[in-house]
Amino acid sequence: MDALVRAYARLTALGQLHLPSTPPGAFQSIHDVFLNEILLDPHLRAYPPAPEYQLKFWKWALQELEVLIGDEVSFRDPHGVAFRDKSLLARTPK
Question: pLDDT band at residue 68, thresholds of 50, 70 and 90?
Fold first, then answer.
């Protein structure tokens, strides 16, 4: 994940960003990296990337987290029947 933090700080193009291979249950650890090592990092708070880059990056990050959480959580319909519908998490074109 250090590579991802460095890529954010260098304003790496989003097409070149990717999350590292993650084991099942990795949502929390990746979420914590986004929160603690990027969003709350004192250096990155003092010297943040351009607002346009931040907007694009966080949109990408949220999409990636949604995919991870979708892999870990079963959705339920209003009647309590569990189902998994990956189309709900379809990624938007970049």
Answer: confident
What DSSP letter does each residue of 47-88 carry, written as one string?
SPPPHHHHHHHHHHHHHHHHHHHHHH--EE-TTS-EE--GGG
**Single-letter residue type at 83:** F
pTM of the model: 0.69
Which of 69, 89, 90 is CA-nearest to residue 27?
A: 69
Is the pLDDT higher at 94 or at 14?
Answer: 14
- CB count, 10 Å around CB of 33? 18
How many Cβ atoms are within 10 Å of 37's Cβ, its own excluded?
A: 15
31: left (phi over 0), alpha (psi -120 to 50) or beta: alpha
